[in-house]
Amino acid sequence: MADLEDHMPERDDLLALVTDQRTNFLYTLAEVDDAGARARTTVSELTLGGLLKHLGLVQRSWLDIVEGTAPAKVDWADLDPDGNRMTDAETVTGLLEAFHAAAAAFDRTVREEADLDREVTLPTYPWSPPEPVVWTVRRVLWHVFREIAHHSGHADIIREALDGASTTAKMAEAASKGQ
Fold first, then answer.
1. 70: left (phi over 0), alpha (psi -120 to 50) or beta
2. Residue 93, CA atoms < 13 Å, CB-side half-sphere
3. What single DSSP character describes residue 122?
4. H-helix or E-strand containing 135?
5. In terms of Cα–Cα distance, which of 105, 139, 145 is closest to 121?
6. Dist. CA 98–CA 107, nearest whole Å
7. SS (H, E, C) 121-175
8. What is the DSSP letter of 120?
9. Contact 41/158 with Cβ under 8 angstroms?
10. How far apart are the first and last CA of the chain?
């Protein structure tokens, strides 16, 4: 238990950074309907709905790795071809619920993790190096942070091209309201 307590300030800081990035990402989805979330506004295949779905799945898949429930190997055939795309059957509301559920489960697991230095073996993917890849739980958390931050930038561009909305303006508006 001492190790868990020793890492609490660091754990809280890391989770605060992840939460902040999630919040910034979610500003890009404010007032976007299903059609807007599916719209391609750049030459990229990326859409707001696809990014929302992807980031929900990212958090869930890394949670599985931390918990030791992820498969050891993932082949091309195992990958969901719609994993980065909002399908016609999906809604922003449903994808937001999945995103928030994955975020809550991920955060709970990180808070309960006894040792951020505990090593986990990543699944082998078709693009993985031949030798096993081992990360610490801390590195997994940093990777999730990086993934959300990376795609938040994509979302900003997509949203601005969609209707001119500015994530920075939404952040400032929320800050002025004390949110």
1. beta
2. 1
3. P
4. strand 134-136
5. 139
6. 14
7. ECCECCCCCCCCCEEEHHHHHHHHHHHHHHHHHHHHHHHHHHHCCCHHHHHHHHH
8. E
9. yes
10. 34
* pTM, entire model: 0.91
Partnered with residue 119 across adjacent β-strands are 136
**What contacts 17, CB < 8 A, 6 or more positions away?**
145
Distance CA 93, CA 104 (A): 16
User: Strand pairing of 119-121 and 134-136?
Assistant: antiparallel
Kindly report the number of other CB atoms within 10 A of residue 46's CB atom.
Answer: 19
CA distances from 177 to 43, 156, 164, 170, 173 (A): 36, 21, 22, 11, 6
* Structure token digits, residue 27: 């500003």
Q: Give the separation between CA 144 and CA 64, rounded to whole angstroms.
A: 13
Alpha-carbon gap, residue 70 to 60, rounded angstroms: 10
Cα 105 to its chain centre, rounded Å, is 12
Helix (H, G, I), strand (E, B) or coil at 146: helix
pLDDT in tens, the chain (179 residues): 445 555 578 899 999 999 999 999 999 999 999 999 999 999 999 999 999 999 999 999 999 999 999 999 999 999 999 999 999 999 999 999 999 999 999 999 989 999 999 999 999 999 999 999 999 999 999 999 999 999 999 999 999 999 999 888 888 888 898 87
